[in-house]
Design a protein that fits this description.
The chain is built from eight helices and no strands. The chain is an all-alpha fold.
Amino acid sequence: MDSFEINKIVAAVLMVALLVIGIGKLSNIIFYVENPKTPGYAVEVEQTSATNTQSSIETTEEKVDIAALMAMGDVGNGEKIFKKCAACHSIVKGGANKIGPALYNVVGRKVGSVNDYKYSKALSEYEKDWSFEELNGYLIKPAKWIKGTKMAFAGLRREQDRASVIKYLNQNSDNPLPLP
C-alpha cells in the first residue's frame, strides 16, 4: 500500500469525525432546549402528625367486633395455622420457652409475664393482658401493634385465621376464657 492510500484512509476518518461533531452542534442550535434553573421535580408530601396516627389506630381497634370475629374461627383450623408459630413457641402444658415464650395459658395472662423468658423492653413495659382483642391486634402485625417488640413475624392478614389461632390458644389453657 502506498502513501496515497494511507492519506485517503486518514482523511476519511477525520471527515467522519468532523461530520459527527458538526451534526451534533447543528442539532443543538435547531432543537434548543432551555435547562431548568433547579434540576428535579418538586414532590408534594402531605404531612401527618403522630396524634392522627394514634387516633386512627384507636378507631380501628374500636371497630373490631370481637364476638363476630371469634365466631369465624375454628379450633381445628387454628391448630393447623399454629404450626407456623410452633417453630418459635411451645403450646404444651409445662413446655419450655424456645425463641419465643411458651404460649400455654396465654389468653388472659399479663403481657410479658413469663418469668424465665427475656422479653423486649416494649413487651415488658406493656401494661395490658392478652385479651381476645389484644391478641387479634397483635396477630395482625406484631411490630406495628407493639412498637419495639423483638417478634419478627409478618402477621396473619385473614380474620378467620387470626380467630382460629386465638381460639386454639384459648383452648390450650387450664381455664379457657368464655368466648365473647
